[in-house]
């Protein structure tokens, strides 16, 4: 079938809207009509050429929501008409990672996903007779996509696609990092570096967890007002801090934070986030994704003296199990998504969504089909 997709032809180039041929679902796969997709900083990161796994030409997008159109042979848990959110972290429930109960990083299809192909090693997308690659196993910047059954969360049918698509990455990543990975406790002091589409959800999660001080660090002063609505208690514009930012934050939190989160993807800030965690017990969680060749560093003494450095992918969430529950939280008014979706536009305007992100004007843009 012909589908409309925003194609990333090469690193650094704008996406182009194209008619692409999509083959139907093979065994274990599902054809999904994508109704809406958020644009995450990770899409921009891969498009920029910084992603060591970035491959072109490809159809990016990993924050979608839509409806099942057709299922391939052997698919038992989904049927046409079901509403779904594609998962870049699948949940097969049978691999050793899933069965360990120690991680959400299901590895059932990770190798082929990283090569931009379906689990059988081929792509379903073609343009002008040539293969176009999948991205993160989801490729939601197309009005139809094919996704493995294990990478689809079935969600309730009354949830609006334009809002809950954001649960496909940003909401779950931010709130999940607080609840599942860091396990923030009532009364904890928290510092969040980066108040964008992820960091504001970390703030929202910290408030849900009952944190006391919730400090946000950003260079964009426009982020303060919205962050306060989500639970921020102290805003720090790092461009305005005189002297050492780490010392300033340690002073503000009277000895360091119980938990810090890096939500930018900057290795220097990852170090600062670790070093302003409390001596003896402070935990620093890296969420931001850094480019090829970037490495983190600190004095080992920072860890010897009790700080813990860890990371979080997709908020530690097991997608098929947890995503439907997060959709319920939204529908029950327990979490705020609406105020974070600052721009909605047709897929034809997707390059505007990237520009708004680069300019620091948007929190989340959602493209519709
Ligand atoms: N680990 C995971 O599972 C996931 C990781 N990510 C990553 O999280 C990071 C954040 O993504 P988004 O929130 O969508 O990006 P965003 O662009 O919406 O937000 C980034 C924020 O960082 C701020 N910032 C930039 N440079 C700064 C600096 N030097 N000091 C202080 N603040 C600064 C910006 O002003 C902005 O508010 C990205 O690296 C993204 O790739 C995103 C989703 C999932
Ligand atoms: N491909 C990159 C790393 C990209 C990355 O870290 N992705 C995150 C999700 S970011 C979502 O917006 C993730 O979950 N990673 C786990 C994984 O298995 O990919 C690189 O090679 O550095
Ligand atoms: Zn993302
Ligand atoms: Zn698995």
Automatic annotation (TrEMBL):
Pfam families: ADH_N (PF08240), ADH_zinc_N (PF00107). Gene3D superfamilies: Medium-chain alcohol dehydrogenases, catalytic domain, NAD(P)-binding Rossmann-like Domain. One of its GO terms (biological process) is formaldehyde catabolic process. Residues 12-367 form the Enoyl reductase (ER) domain. It is an enzyme of class 1 (oxidoreductase). PROSITE patterns: ADH_ZINC (PS00059). Belongs to the zinc-containing alcohol dehydrogenase family. Class-III subfamily. This is S-(hydroxymethyl)glutathione dehydrogenase. It comes from Pollutimonas subterranea.
């Amino acid at each position: 079938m012909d589908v409309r997709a925003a194609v990333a032809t090469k690193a650094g180039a704008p996406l182009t809207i194209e008619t692409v041929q999509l083959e139907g679902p093979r065994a274990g796969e599902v054809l999904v009509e994508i109704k809406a997709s958020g644009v995450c900083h990770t899409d921009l990161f891969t498009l920029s050429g910084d992603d060591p796994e970035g491959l072109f030409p490809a159809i990016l997008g990993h924050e979608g929501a839509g409806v099942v159109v057709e299922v391939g042979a052997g698919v038992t848990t989904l049927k046409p008409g079901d509403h779904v959110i594609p998962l870049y972290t699948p949940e097969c429930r049978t691999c050793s990672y899933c069965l360990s109960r120690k991680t959400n990083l299901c590895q059932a299809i990770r190798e082929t996903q990283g090569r931009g192909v379906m689990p059988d090693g081929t792509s379903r997308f073609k343009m002008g007779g040539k293969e176009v690659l999948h991205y993160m196993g989801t490729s939601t910047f197309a009005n139809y996509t094919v996704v493995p059954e294990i990478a689809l969360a079935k969600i309730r049918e009354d949830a609006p696609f334009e809002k809950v698509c954001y649960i496909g990455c940003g909401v779950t990543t931010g709130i999940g990092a607080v609840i599942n990975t860091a396990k923030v406790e009532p009364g904890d002091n928290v510092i969040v570096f980066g108040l964008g589409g992820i960091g504001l959800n970390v703030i929202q999660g910290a408030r849900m967890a009952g944190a006391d001080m919730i400090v946000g660090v950003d260079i964009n002063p426009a982020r303060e007002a919205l962050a306060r609505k989500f639970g921020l208690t102290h805003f720090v514009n790092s461009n305005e801090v005189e002297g050492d930012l780490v010392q300033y934050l340690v002073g503000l939190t009277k000895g360091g934070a119980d938990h810090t989160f890096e939500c930018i993807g900057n290795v220097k800030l990852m170090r600062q986030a670790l070093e302003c965690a409390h001596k003896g017990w402070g935990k620093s969680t890296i969420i931001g994704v850094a480019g090829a060749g970037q490495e983190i560093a600190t004095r080992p003494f920072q860890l010897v003296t009790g700080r813990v450095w860890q990371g979080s992918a997709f908020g530690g969430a097991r997608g098929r199990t947890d995503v439907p529950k997060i959709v319920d939280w939204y529908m029950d008014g327990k979490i705020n998504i609406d105020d974070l979706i600052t721009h909605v536009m047709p897929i034809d305007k997707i390059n505007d969504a990237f520009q708004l992100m680069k300019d620091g004007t948007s929190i989340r843009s959602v493209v519709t089909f």
